[in-house]
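Worked Example 4.2. Consider the chain below.
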Amino acid sequence: MRLTLRFPIKGLYYYAADALWPHLKTGMHFKIQTEPDNSYDANAIQLFWTNRQGSALIGYIPRQLAKTLAEIYSPHDIENLDNRISYLWRQGKWQEIELQMTLDLPWHKALQSVLLSLWLRKKHQWQRFRRKKSC
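Applying the procedure from the previous section yields the following structure tokens:
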């Protein structure tokens, strides 16, 4: 089953997203790289911003979704998945980037992935609402 998922990128605060923010635009692609030697998550999938001068780590695909992708795809297939930025938001030090990916999944994994990405997006929207309210 072919589907398109939108989900927030994790770890933006800890990596190069802040420094690269002026260069990020909706529709841009990230280089995807698996990180099997990650001590926190063997299924970790990194997202890199690249240009002619080099590349910088932006963040990670959420752990729950990375696990699903690792169950279905080989590391080589994961690194070649179609992706693009679908949403950018910034307020002070808070940033959010949503990534859009098109995947071919069995129906039960597609359903699981759709529900997971919806939950992740709603969770981030709620956090954003709480931050706006407290400002």
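The chain has a mean pLDDT of 89. The two ends are 43 Å apart (CA to CA). Compare this with Example 4.1 before moving on.
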